[in-house]
Amino acid sequence: MTLIDELQKIGKDRLPHSGKTIYLAAGWFNPIQEKLLKDAYAELLQNQTVAHVHVPLLHQYEGSNPIVNGEFNPDQEWATATFDDDVSAIDNADVVVALLDASDQDTGTIWEMGYAYASHKPVVVLTVGDTFEYPINLMPAQGAIHHLAKNNLKTFDFYEINKRFYVGKTI
C-alpha cells in the first residue's frame, strides 16, 4: 500500500463540519516523516475546529504519482503544476500546520512556512526529534506563531492560536 493509499484510507470516513481550513505542510521522504504525516492527518481530521485538511500529496497533478519503484522522480511539468497548486492551496487555507523532522528538515516544508508567513497566515509547527542535537534554522523557528510541545493536533483550538515559542537550539 502506498503512502497516498494510506492517507486516502485515513480520510475516507470524515464527515464534513464547520471549522478552519488547514494546509498540512510536511515532508514524506523518510519513514519518520511518513509516520508524522499520517499521524498528524488522522489527528487533524478528528479536530472539531478543523473543517478541511489539504494534504498536497493527495492532490497530485493529473492524479500522477511522482514516486516510481520507491524513488522520487518528478518531471518538470509535474514540478511546475505541484508548485502552483500548493501555493494556491496555501492561499486558500486559514492556517498552515507544518511538520518538521529535526534530524531531516524538509526544505519544501520550510519554504511553505515562509510563504505562509509572508502571506500573513498563522503557522503552527509540530517538530519531532531532538532540537538541541539537530537545531532548527532561526527563520522557521521564529516564523511560526505556535510551536506545539507534543502532537495534540486532535484537540488544538485553531480559533484561538496563541504565541508559543520554539524550544530548542537555533542556527
UniProtKB/TrEMBL annotation:
Q: Which Gene3D superfamilies match?
A: 3.40.50.450
Q: What is an example of a Pfam family matching this protein?
A: Nuc_deoxyrib_tr
InterPro entries noted in UniProt: Nucleoside_deoxyribTrfase
Tell me the protein's name.
Answer: Nucleoside 2-deoxyribosyltransferase
